From TrEMBL:
Protein's name in the database: Fatty acid desaturase 2
InterPro entries (alphabetical): Cyt_B5-like_heme/steroid-bd, Cyt_B5-like_heme/steroid_sf, FA_desaturase_dom, Fatty_acid_desaturase
Single GO BP term: unsaturated fatty acid biosynthetic process
Record key words, sorted: Electron transport, Fatty acid biosynthesis, Fatty acid metabolism, Lipid biosynthesis, Lipid metabolism, Membrane, Oxidoreductase, Transmembrane, Transmembrane helix, Transport
Domain Cytochrome b5 heme-binding residues, every copy: 18-95
Organism: Sinocyclocheilus anshuiensis
Amino acid sequence: MGGGGQQTDRITGTNGRFGTYTWEEVQKHTKSGDQWIVVERKVYNVSQWVKRHPGGLRIIGHYAGEDATEAFTAFHPDLQLVRKYMKPLLIGELEASEPSQDCQKNAALVEDFRALREHLEAIALMLVWCFGTGWINTAIVAVLMATAQSQAGWLQHDFGHLSVCKTSRWNHLVHKFVIGHLKGASAGWWNHRHFQHHAKPNVFKKDPDVNMLNAFVVGKVQPVEYGVKKIKHLPYNHQHKYFFFVGPPLLIPVYFQFQIFHNMILHGLWVDLAWCISYYVRYFLCYTQFYGVFWAVILFNFVRFMESHWFVWVTQMSHIPMNIDYEKHQDWLSMQLVATCNIEQSPFNDWFSGHLNFQIEHHLFPTMPRHNYWRAAPHVRALCDKYGVKYQEKTLYGAFADIIRSLEKSGELWLDAYLNK
């Protein structure tokens, strides 16, 4: 049996010995500096490599001691390429008597979801046009150079999800250009947040999107914890009211603005910082000529203010009203379905949300082109029906209203626990 914490070498992984492991042994390696994961029944020691992971060190750490096969498949369009990078990290495999899934996951559901993904790949719904593919390259460049800031947001989102495809170097560079020069943000910062969100949505301490900085309490668990501990940074029983003044108007122009620069400087993301500065230089060189410095600053903040409203409502309508809890070690399908819901399809909803009204499909298949979500949706719904997994779909108005209703309910839970002596 392989011993815990042994240093891997470049050939066989465990000082010349290829080991077999039980889940109990794998699950001992979950701490920073000592992390193992399982992918396709193979055991990898990623303790040191996490710092070089293109998707960030925390996303792998969130799967330490677990089977990461489904997440590995979801995030990497070119699996063969990534497997080559993983070979030096291989230290063994699961014992033959061990199940492929950990934590009593439904093996049949996991297998059927794998088959669904293969079917969607077979009918070309998973086809990813990576940057650098002939005439598509030229078309993308034309769109990039003509796009406005709001459209640039979609481009940087999609290039971020394609950062590990076969021509990832070009996608990586374009992602930095779009989010840095066209948006004034940081590719490293975005990847750090967004990949974690997709890997463990609505999971406390793993999804940064549910870190509310003590301004809000969300879900059913956190409000009670805060109430029992008598934590009252704000009057949470009124959070559904002050949300309109704190959430949508301030997220991008205040919180994200500060966090982006803080993250770049703290982690030494100097290339990202250079791209970001180029955005501000370009912006002020262009607009101060027409409006002067004062009104150029006003325009900048007004655009961020409006963008922030759209961003908060569209992203949170599919997540905040859903289940928010600590890690439950669910399979990929079940974990994503309890944390996400869809908004019904219509020409307006598709346009307004950029096809992210199909948030379920986006979370299940993060590298799938967004215009294919509606085609994948019936297949996903059928699989959910087979296993009794709830597939939620709402109206746009209902989803917006549910944000407020869920905040009000969470606030009531907090107040009850806070006043209960």
